[in-house]
From TrEMBL:
Name of the protein this chain belongs to: Outer Membrane Siderophore Receptor IroN
Source lineage: Bacteria, Pseudomonadati, Pseudomonadota, Gammaproteobacteria, Enterobacterales
Family label: Belongs to the TonB-dependent receptor family.
Membrane topology designation: Multi-pass membrane protein
Origin superkingdom: Bacteria
An example molecular function term from Gene Ontology annotations: siderophore uptake transmembrane transporter activity
Source organism (scientific name): Klebsiella pneumoniae
Key words of the record: Cell outer membrane, Membrane, Receptor, Transmembrane, Transmembrane beta strand, Transport
A single GO BP: siderophore transmembrane transport
PANTHER family found in the cross-reference section: TONB-DEPENDENT OUTER MEMBRANE RECEPTOR, TONB-DEPENDENT SIDEROPHORE RECEPTOR PROTEIN
Subcellular location: Cell outer membrane
Alphabetized CDD domains for the sequence: ligand_gated_channel (cd01347)
GO cellular component: cell outer membrane
Amino acid sequence: MIIVIINILDLILHCFEKDIYMRSPQYSVPTTLALVISSLLAPNAFAEESEQDTETMIVRSTAEEALKQQPGVSIITAEDIAKQPPVNDLSDIIRKMPGVNLTGNSASGSRGNNRQIDIRGMGPENTLILIDGVPVTSRNAVRYSWRGERDTRGDSNWVPAEMVERIEVLRGPAAARYGSGAAGGVVNIITKRPTNTWHGSLSFFTNQPENNKEGTTNRANFNLSGPLAGEALTMRLYGNINKTEPDAWDINHAQNGSYAAGREGVRNKDINALLSWKMTPQQILDFSYAYSRQGNIYAGDTQYSNGNLSPNGLVDSLYGHETNRLYRQSWGLTYNGLWDWGQSKAGVYYEKTNNTRLQEGSTGRVEGMINSEDYATSRLESWRTTSEFNVPFFWLADQTLTLEWNGTMISSTTRHRCRPLTATARLSLGPRATLRNAVPKTAPPSPVSIWKIISKPCPAPT
């Protein structure tokens, strides 16, 4: 545009020098300037006319998708899950969200066959898993090695994908809102509520890899939901059973030296029941119970050494057998209330996990390698009571006050017994993270003060 203007000015000066406009009465100075200005404005006029003739296109899904993926928060709805290929573990769906990855718990990559959810590179130890807003801590029943990893699959496989209403992924430090273990982020798995009409389904899933050295997966689950006494008393029951075969022991075989083990198999059984009492349209009391059993199918992982891979070695004899199993039970009583002044939530929860596994080495090169045919059991018990009050002040900010007490007892048949207690009070000033219809309405809360009392901590079990 600058070059065009300079050329036009040169043309005007040239006209003055040749005295063209003086000899021709048809071209005066105002006429020449008018022609120049009109030539500059003409393209804009044509462009404006062209814009008016352009057909308007409206994309209706963009706004909703933008809200579901706003900074720091991602929402995965049941509709999103239905559009994707079936999966056996929710972590395979959650990993597709921004800032989320599946990783081991150490930079060395050990125990990489049991990959867990990692948010923003903070590691699984700083990623808190919730089911219906309640922390799930079964993974903590597994020994935390001195290199910084646990031989566990995490807590994302307790709920089948068909029973998920939505998954909320909160990235970034959330310890002030959800307590310890949430420095990297939070994954909240929301299950489907009981229905007012009887509904049930039976689902089957199978995964058959092209390579016969990779383990196959088969899964079956059911769910039943309906009213027991009109809309006042409803129930929901679902169960799940699945099995994934281990990879072949020589899937990563090398001619010389050590080689990586394949992915180990898993057997998983789950049963979950929920009884919901709607005392009034604004007052709901829920009682929940869940039982799960999860066991591995050994694929030869020795973590750091292949020393027992001889035909008569311990590792060779254990291939294809179960070397560790988790038994998890949980009870919960939750009250939700809606008032003129805001919302309230209170709950009492108990979780017990028994971790039974063959004994392993705990130091040096043999750390993590099975060295005995004797089993040891670690038991993790957790009690939690919590109360939450959300009071909106639209002229200033929403107020969220959370009072929480939780206790944990860790015991082992071979090592120690410990009982840590924690009391916490949290006050958050700012908009609440209200997620309705799978679309976050506001940003996560911004805590301004935290008060916490912690008694004697416990080391991890062995």
